[in-house]
Amino acid sequence: MSTAAATKKNWTVMVYLAGDNNLDGAGVVDLNEMKRVGCTDRLNVLAQFDRAGAKGATVRYCLQKGTPLAKDVKQKLGETNMGDPKVLEDFVTWGVRNYPAEHYLLVLWNHGAGWDDANLYEGDVFSGATPPVARKRQPIPVRGTVAKGARVLPFGSARAGLARTRRALFRTTVENAVRVRGIGYDDQAQDFLDNVELKRVLARITRKLKRKIDILGMDACLMSMVEVAYQVRDVADYTVGSEETEPGEGWPYDRILSALAATPTMTPQQLSKTIVTAYLASYRSSDNVTQSAVRLAALAPLTGAVDSLSKTLTGALTNSALRSALVSVRAQVQEYSRPYDDYCDLLDLCARLETTLGDDTVRTACAGVKQAAQAAIVAAGYRGPAVDSSQGISIYFPKRKLSPLYKTLDFTKASAWDEFLKGYLASLEG
């Protein structure tokens, strides 16, 4: 590594492209977007990309503007399991050691499923399958095209071909489309990063850094949840992600990096807001997308406020009129794309509880949640009528069955929300 390359810059952006699945073509598009800006004298732009298929090698890049992509290759790693925490740790360690900066943005690029860690590769939905999935299972075949939504696209399709697709995984390599869990899916290894693994590996990374990651970006579906944010509260200063599923186009890396290159002295909060603004500006008003940035130092007060609300709502279940009103609220609250309609917007939920239940104790508890959430959410927005009540952070509120995996999260250990859910779902059966 040359002295020039090791000079500390303002920002190092590290994008972990787990593309060994049906997002392979989207990864090619996004690499090219990054190259439209590339590294500058104040900015490092790094990527690790695992291509689809058994022969899809993993490559590390230091991306430059105006060069052939092959010239940007720094390391060829062969086939890797991007769902293995060690692979993520090695990438970030390599990036920080060789491309030091004052600030770090780490982007996890892949499919996402919010908090839920059930085993995708076991099939079943909210089944309570025991995570994590075993590492390095027998590889599964990957065909030369991937189905995204209702369309079939060849690897390397252009951005126009990715419009209207979603980063919610459709298992074209198995028999049927099923729901996804966690983040960082690798079809060859049949593995993924669950939320417990993610917390542990980021904790190891921050110990090596001797500081938190400035921004943890999640260019994936459904990751702007209070449960996910609380899980990583001690390893990053900000998260940026979506409450709703993301289109296959994902983040507009050219717009984001152009803004950062123009103002490399951006603070982490300023860059977090910039990502949200650029993302929303890159979509049409009919695309039904969301994006938000959360300050993780504010997660403890927010979780405490949710805990108070949980206990208040559990008490309300004993009143038949309040219980009926609560069921009505759950039927109307902002929720997200099927089959993820068990996730709903936390602030919209509180607003509807305040007006529909008509109970002073509930109003007080909801006001506490709203105040704490507004302190945590530094930027939020949406595009599209189907998500027009989205306000920045969602929460798990199942309508039928409570996943037994929910109790494994830090959030459920710090709040009584899961106890409220148990009581609520039990009341529906009574």
SSE arrangement:
Layout: H1 3-6, E1 9-18, H2 24-35, E2 43-50, E3 58-62, E4 73-78, H3 85-98, E5 101-109, E6 145-148, E7 151-154, H4 159-162, E8 183-186, E9 191-193, H5 195-209, E10 213-219, H6 226-231, E11 236-241, H7 253-262, H8 268-281, E12 289-295, H9 299-316, H10 320-332, E13 343-345, H11 346-357, H12 360-376, E14 377-383, E15 394-396, H13 410-414, H14 417-429
Quick structural summary:
The protein has 430 residues and is of the alpha/beta class. The chain has helices at 3-6, 24-35, 85-98, 159-162, 195-209, 226-231, 253-262, 268-281, 299-316, 320-332, 346-357, 360-376, 410-414, 417-429; strands spanning 9-18, 43-50, 58-62, 73-78, 101-109, 145-148, 151-154, 183-186, 191-193, 213-219, 236-241, 289-295, 343-345, 377-383, 394-396. The longest helix has 18 residues, at 299-316.
Folded structure, characterized:
There is one protein chain. The chain folds into two domains: 8-114 and 192-298, 3-Layer(aba) Sandwich (Rossmann fold), CATH 3.40.50.11970; 299-429, no CATH class. The protein has 14 helices and 15 strands. It has helices at residues 3-6, 24-35, 85-98, 159-162, 195-209, 226-231, 253-262, 268-281, 299-316, 320-332, 346-357, 360-376, 410-414, 417-429, and strands at 9-18, 43-50, 58-62, 73-78, 101-109, 145-148, 151-154, 183-186, 191-193, 213-219, 236-241, 289-295, 343-345, 377-383, 394-396. The longest helix has 18 residues, at 299-316. The chain is elongated. The termini are far apart. Mean pLDDT is 82; it is low at 1-5 and 119-191.
